[in-house]
């Protein structure tokens, strides 16, 4: 049986438009993809119902909030500490995102922090759950949309 895609080329163009600006109107997107606003709305609803579009997000400039340091922290979790770290990562305000990964390390955490002291304190806190490697984010590389 052929594995059918949940989205055609027009759907992919709509997704790309939403990734650039999730607040774009159906009319604006329709002009980009040569569809009526109501057709765009129906396609977006279908993509949401199918689970292709999971959520809409806000992109935040953390520096404007006084969080000047962003870093990835790799954690090689100590035996028996994984579930506790997962629970803590979900509630720590410094954590923007956390993922379990395959390889030498078990978890990667993306953080936003005020300054070097805040980074040091967070590393001290997270290192109680495993050995860490910290990677400072210097700048983001713009990702091409679908």
The overall pLDDT average reads 93
Q: What's the β-strand tally?
A: 4
- The CATH architecture assignment of the largest domain turns out to be 2-Layer Sandwich
So how many helices? 5
Distance between the termini: 26 Å
Largest sheet: 4 strands, antiparallel
Overview of the structural elements:
This protein is an alpha+beta fold and 146 residues long. The chain has two domains: 9-49, Orthogonal Bundle (Arc Repressor Mutant, subunit A); 62-136, Alpha-Beta Plaits, CATH 3.30.70. It is built from five helices and four strands. The protein has helices spanning 9-20, 26-33, 37-49, 82-91, 116-126; strands at 69-77, 95-100, 107-113, 130-136. It has a four-stranded antiparallel β-sheet with strand order 2-3-1-4. Strand 2 and strand 3 (107-113) form a beta hairpin. Helix 2 packs across helix 3 (37-49). The longest helix is centred in the first third of the chain and has 13 residues, at 37-49. The radius of gyration is 20 Å and the shape is elongated. The two termini are 26 Å apart.
Which secondary structure elements does this structure contain, and how are they paired or packed?
Blueprint: H1 9-20, H2 26-33, H3 37-49, E1 69-77, H4 82-91, E2 95-100, E3 107-113, H5 116-126, E4 130-136
Antiparallel strand pairs: 1-3, 1-4, 2-3
